[in-house]
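Homework help thread (please don't just give me the answer)

Our assignment gives two proteins as sequence + structure token strings and asks us to describe the second one. The first is just a warm-up. Here they are:
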Amino acid sequence: MLVSTEGIVLRQFPFSDTSIIVKIFTRDYGLVGFIIKGAKSKKNAKAQLFKPVNLLAISFYQNENQGLKQIREAQLLFAPEAQNFGVYKSAVTMFMVELINHTVPEDSGQPDIEKYNFIASSIQYLRDHPLNAHFYLSFMYRYSGYLGIEIPLESDSGLENLADYTHLVNLSWTKKERQALFHSFERHYLENLTQYKSLKSIDILNTILQ
């Protein structure tokens, strides 16, 4: 059956001399693996579509007995390129993608529309607004709720501002304070998710975000 949906590219890796495997978190079918034949060919103009963080509209044949699927059509909806994201926002999106990669079940085939919509809207918010140094903490906190492990926040601590991106302007934590809060959040993820792994991309954020 030919189906259509939207998806966020999470990662890709080589499959053969000419092909790659791409993992896409789709709105309607969860995390799905695709084989993109000829993607390494310089003549394949669509190879650039499948970079991590790209938002795509795709159609493919959905067969429960099939492992890797093949995309029939793919259209780019949004790509975090240098002119609209820059180094800082790109680093934040890679942090988001690593976090998602560690928390989305492999090839479940099950829709997770609310989670998908939150992730897509977060990327779009980041695109449309100036970067706030607290954004990645807000995403990590809010995302925990979609995983069913919501991080508890102390009242009257200022942490409630993390629940809404528009409220981040009210925060003025130092770099050291943000780092401490991240480690607190990550401990919560490690204690509540068996498949979770510590994030490597935080080192880049700690380097570039003042």
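The one we have to describe:
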Amino acid sequence: MKFLDQAKVYIASGSGGNGCLSFRREKFIEYGGPNGGDGGRGGDVWAEAVDNLNTLIDYRYQQHIKAKNGQHGMGKEMTGANGEDAVIRVPPGTQIYEEDGETLICDLPKVADRVMLAKGGNGGFGNAHFKTSTNQAPRHANPGQPAEEKTIILRLKLIADVGLIGLPNAGKSTFLSRVSAAKPKIADYPFTTLNPQLGMVRIDTTDFVLADLPGLIQGAHEGAGLGDKFLGHAERCGAILHLVDGTQGEISRPYKIIRRELESYGHGLSEKPEILVLNKIDAIAKAALAKKKASLEKASGCKVYLVSGVTGEGVSEVLRALAREIVKRRDKEKRGTVKERVWAPER
């Protein structure tokens, strides 16, 4: 399935049904009086985050979402049926914007999060509603309220356990194909990956989702290259796997470029747990490899893992380091959820 992280959708709620203008007409009943029923309420348009979805590809082909109209009122004071709601089912992590693409309507980070986007119109009153002691034969009924219409922008920020980042051609796609069943496009030129790729990784007893994010370049936080929307995907990841191409000359420079972009983008990206990897060690002489590792450790101030995505050397060690961070985060989230469930005050 193709990954799509943005879609434009036209939505419309249902309009309310008209009230009915009717009078009771039966044999031997001379003054039956008004008996027009009210119109039914129009359906609402909802957005709901659901499980087992990780793309907005459905809305590439279904760009109009409309709720049902309410039925008109009928005689014998019968109220029209309410219109059926329309539900836009999206992956967790979806943000919904106004048509300008900047005004945020809502954020749906978790499964079962739900929000109303367009309210259905109320049904009109039938003439039975207007009967009074002084007006026993009202000859008017209200029309139903009109529907709400708007165009919205759906924007998905991936919720993955680990985000795989690095400059173009750092070997991210090769690494992903090595550790999972994902089949990203691999080539020896920059920006081979133009869309985020997801892979399910298993190491020992831990499973986690790894997202290969398209290569960042200097100025990405301002929209340069593939832009800051891919930094937005990294924003939702629990940890970051930072790959540095070991075949480059000045080894600390690519690391500093990416770190600067993370800090400039903000949103807590620079504070996420980071596993730093020196990749493509199969193409580096042992003497030069030791110097490059020492240089990168000095620049980063953290441990550097040595990996070859082609041969698989060092991959297991990196995956176990990631698994430790993921298990730690999941345990913390579980404790927070239990505490919230136990101690949350009654409303």
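TA reply:
I won't write it for you, but here's a hint about the kind of observation we're looking for: The CA atoms of residues 200 and 209 lie 5 Å apart.
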